[in-house]
Design a protein that fits this description.
The chain has 84 residues and is α+β, with helices and mostly antiparallel strands. The chain has one helix at residues 58-70; strands spanning 8-9, 23-31, 34-36, 39-42, 45-52. The strands form 2 sheets. It has a 3-stranded mixed sheet.
């Protein structure tokens, strides 16, 4: 995880101020906590991790997946790309 620390940034940037790829943004868009007796019994946070690269980078994807796997974190994966 330490090797990823240099890639971590905030969830958005002013136009033209993003770091040079590759970098990771993470967002906390919501939660789906489990309640019991009117209290949060088990916290479930949705975390979105976005890896930005100039081109498809399977090695960087594997690095992120390995960190999540090693930490025992369940995840789903999707991909969006833009041709410009």
């Amino acid at each position: 995880m330490i090797s990823l620390a240099r890639y971590l940034e905030v969830d958005h940037f002013a136009e033209g101020e993003s770091p040079d790829p590759p970098f990771i943004c993470y967002l906390l868009p919501g939660s789906d906590n489990f309640s019991a007796d009117g209290r949060v019994y088990f916290r479930i946070s949705e975390v979105r991790i976005e890896l930005y690269t100039d081109r498809k980078d399977p090695g960087a994807e594997v690095l992120v997946e390995t960190v999540l796997d090693d930490a025992g974190i369940f995840y789903n994966k999707s991909e969006v790309w833009n041709l410009h």
